Amino acid sequence: GTDMPTPAGAVSRSLFKKQSASEAHGSDFGIPGDATKPLFKKNSLDEMTVRRTEKPIEGKVPAKPQPISPLVGDESAKPVVRQRTGIGSYEDPADARREKRRPGKTGRPGK
After folding, report:
1. CA distance linking residue 87 with residue 81, whole number of Å
2. CA dist., res. 12 & res. 5, Å (int)
3. What is the pTM of this model?
């Protein structure tokens, strides 16, 4: 494990095996012109293209569904007006008050 020579009779406790000369100087991808399969495969273009490997489905595309339109003159189609937390909102008003009590993070350090 270390650069120091191992004393006679001592056992090396290193977890790492020292490389042989052929391991250290050999190539990672085989010998050029060698018929054996290389250790590493080149990525195909599809593999290099991240998130764009989905193939479109061949064949007839299903028809898009018609949007469900509200009846003409129906007042429920208008958006709910939300000025403050708690009015037509999912947030709990008590949580909003508790949130406001927390100090801002813009003060001087240590003050």
Report:
1. 8
2. 10
3. 0.15
